[in-house]
Amino acid sequence: MKTIAHFLNTLFALAIAGPLLAADPRNISWQDLLPEERPYHDPFATLEYSQVNALAMLYRIEILHADTADDEKRAEAFQIREDLVSQGLDPDWLFEQREIVMNQRLIAAREPNLDLLGENVRLPGYLLPLDIVDQKAVEFLLVPTVGACIHTPPPPANQMVYVRYEQGFEIDELYKPVWISGEMRAQSRSQSLNYVDGQANIETSYAMDALSVEIYD
After folding, report:
1. Which N-terminal stretch is annotated as signal sequence (predicted)?
2. Cα(30)–Cα(139) distance, integer angstroms
3. Tell me: the pLDDT tens digits for 5-20?
4. Of all helices (H) and strands (E), which one includes residue 190?
5. 3-class secondary structure for 91-154?
6. How confident is the model over 68-113, as pLDDT tens digits?
7. H or E element, residue 26
8. What's CA 35's distance to the chain center, in Å?
9. To 5 degrees, how large is the angle CA 35–CA 37–CA 38?
10. The model's pTM
């Protein structure tokens, strides 16, 4: 009986350990957080710098300031339009394409990589604390570069991870280099980040309830 009990206990232990061993986090990089690239036509990529500037000026006069443009500005817009048409360009079509291109770029900056969702992963980055309890960060952003969101503009939403870590990670500096491990999930989140020089609105596409946070060596 003792042998059978020992055998059953061993099987039970293996049954539990198997999934845990299989769930060891997979090391990933920030590049892995980007979604699969969706090719799209960008007609502005082949334009000359002067043509892009002319289109921008025309857009400001005819679209953004249409109600306040005086006769001088309207005459300027007419001349710009004539010049662009003489170069074989269609300003109205390009204005329509502008919206399409902007939308595609927005998708590329916000959309998560669906292949990562639900995966147990390990990602290095820099810790930017959001909520501190007893000198430990229990909520923070993981960002790819030092200075992100404070000294430099925020990275794209899919290049940041909002992290909750219940036991907290002791911090003695901003942008502590760390590894985070846990299940990656998609979560659109927008919040204000206050700092000495002002405030920034931060958008993130990823979230994680971290199982571990370790110093990056």
Report:
1. 1-22
2. 20
3. 444 454 444 444 444 4
4. strand 185-195
5. HHHHHHHHHHHHHHHHHHHHCCCHHHCCCEEEEEEEEEEEEEECCEEEEEEEECCCCECCCECC
6. 999 999 999 999 999 999 999 999 999 999 998 988 888 888 999 9
7. strand 26-27
8. 10
9. 120
10. 0.72
